[in-house]
């Protein structure tokens, strides 16, 4: 049996009776950029997340970039983040001429370790980007406490964590801003690129709303440098429909995760599942395990041969990426993250995954690990 890591066509089949007429409606409306579909989605997303402002932007990457710009981060500043993430997280910092300063992660939750943050704060530090990795919330209370003490701004990278909760509140409501991605493979995926910034701060909301349209507070009058970074009406209309299903999809992911967890917890520490700390309600954008007997690469190769989808998030930690060579990090600087990068593998978890498929995946992984 072949099992895909992710099959977006199954979701499309389920929704096409609602989505196809909507796509035609948007096409016929002539309202393609900003406009009513975007406004409707922003209002609905703000309500869902439980935040005052939701601002549609062109991508998750831009959601982070515009947040940092709105915080006033500029060349020479430092921004603290995790080395165990997708490249966009540190790329946006470096693209502003600022310096990403990495803080190692907790080996169980795989999220930034709040206890290691304060030692990395200097007079140049302006902000922190905690990432809710794979859909599990970072431990936000201690992070916000440190930020308050040192007058830093916090942008949650919630690109993998729409619907995730931290102590009963949704991610994206905890920092000064939250950044979300609607890249098609994310838990809430568009039919192209898209993103969202959330904030409870009126001033940040206004500034980000202006940064996404060329820094223009008043039409044709440009007061600050901005970007062309808008969510388009077609994507917003599709996301409007999909948002109605997000909780069901996240629950289906959680059910798949619960099944895998039961199987892998019975392997006596051979296959260790990412910890779901008691402060978070995980939404399993990825289901990631650590293979503790050195057979990760073997499992990766064998699954590929057998047609079982899997991926290694992440093979290279951010501090060792070539694009960050100028930062001067070397192997050994972030031991926990480097260890994770040698042990982790992510398995199929998407909501439409069938029971026979997940059973086949779990059984095969255990067999190879024990071989
Ligand atoms: C996907 C992702 C991004 C970037 O989102 P895009 O919409 O692809 O620009 C940023 N950070 C993390 C952790 C992500 O997973």
Give an overview in words.
The protein contains 11 helices and 13 strands. By secondary structure, it is α/β, with parallel strands linked by helices. Strands 1-9-8-5-4-2-3 form a 7-stranded mixed sheet, sandwiched between helices.
How many strands, which pairing sense, and closed or not: the largest β-sheet?
7 strands, mixed
**Percent helix:** 25-40%
Query: Roughly how many Å apart are the termini?
Result: 20 Å
Strand order of the largest sheet: 1-9-8-5-4-2-3
Fraction of residues in β-strands:
5-15%
Reading the helices and strands in chain order gives: HHEHEHEEHEEEEEHHHEEEHHEH
- Provide the list of bound ligands, each named once: pyridoxal-5'-phosphate
Q: Which stretches are low in confidence, meaning pLDDT under 50 for 5 or more residues running?
A: none
* Estimated radius of gyration: 21 Å
Shape: globular
Number of helices: 11
Number of E-state strands: 13
Mean pLDDT: 97
**Category from helices, strands and their pairing:** alpha/beta
Q: What is this structure's SSE topology?
A:
Elements: H1 8-29, H2 35-49, E1 53-57, H3 60-71, E2 78-81, H4 88-95, E3 99-102, E4 125-129, H5 140-149, E5 153-157, E6 165-166, E7 169-170, E8 177-181, E9 195-199, H6 202-211, H7 233-243, H8 246-265, E10 271-273, E11 280-281, E12 287-291, H9 296-306, H10 335-343, E13 344-347, H11 355-370
Parallel strand pairs: 2-3, 2-4, 4-5, 5-8
Antiparallel strand pairs: 1-9, 6-7, 6-11, 8-9, 10-12, 12-13
Helix pairs in contact: 1-7, 2-7, 3-4, 3-6, 8-11, 9-11
The structure holds pyridoxal-5'-phosphate.
């Amino acid at each position: 049996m072949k099992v895909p890591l992710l099959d977006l066509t199954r979701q499309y089949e389920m929704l096409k009776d609602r989505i196809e007429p909507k796509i035609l409606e948007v096409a016929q409306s002539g309202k393609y950029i900003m406009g009513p579909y975007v406004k409707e989605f922003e209002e609905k997303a703000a309500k869902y997340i439980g935040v005052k402002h939701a601002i549609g932007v062109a991508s998750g990457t831009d959601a982070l970039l515009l947040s940092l710009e709105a915080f006033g981060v500029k060349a020479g500043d430092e921004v603290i983040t995790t080395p165990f993430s997708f490249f966009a997280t540190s790329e946006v910092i470096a693209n502003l001429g600022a310096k990403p300063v990495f803080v190692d992660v907790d080996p169980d939750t795989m999220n930034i370790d709040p206890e290691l943050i304060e030692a990395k704060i200097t007079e140049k530090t302006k902000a922190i980007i905690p990432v809710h990795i794979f859909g599990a919330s970072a431990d936000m209370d201690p992070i916000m406490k440190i930020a308050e003490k040192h007058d830093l701004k916090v942008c949650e990278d919630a690109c993998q964590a729409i619907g995730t909760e931290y102590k009963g509140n949704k991610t994206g409501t905890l920092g000064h801003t939250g950044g979300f991605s609607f890249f098609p493979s994310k838990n809430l995926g568009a039919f192209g690129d898209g993103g969202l910034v959330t904030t409870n701060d009126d001033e940040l909301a206004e500034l980000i709303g202006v940064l996404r349209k060329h820094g223009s507070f008043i039409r044709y009058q440009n007061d600050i440098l901005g970007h062309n970074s808008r969510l388009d009406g077609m994507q917003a209309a599709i996301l409007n429909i999909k948002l109605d299903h997000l909780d069901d999809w996240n629950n289906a992911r959680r059910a798949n995760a619960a099944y895998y967890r039961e199987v892998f917890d019975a392997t006596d520490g051979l296959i260790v599942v990412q910890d779901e700390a008691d402060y978070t309600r995980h939404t399993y954008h990825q289901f990631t395990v650590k293979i503790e007997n050195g057979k990760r690469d073997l499992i990766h190769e064998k699954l590929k041969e057998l047609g079982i989808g899997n991926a290694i998030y992440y093979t290279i930690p951010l501090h060792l990426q070539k694009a960050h060579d100028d930062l001067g990090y070397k192997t050994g600087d972030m031991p926990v993250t480097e260890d994770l990068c040698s042990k982790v593998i992510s398995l199929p978890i998407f909501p439409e995954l069938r029971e026979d498929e997940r059973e086949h995946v779990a059984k095969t992984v255990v067999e190879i690990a024990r071989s």
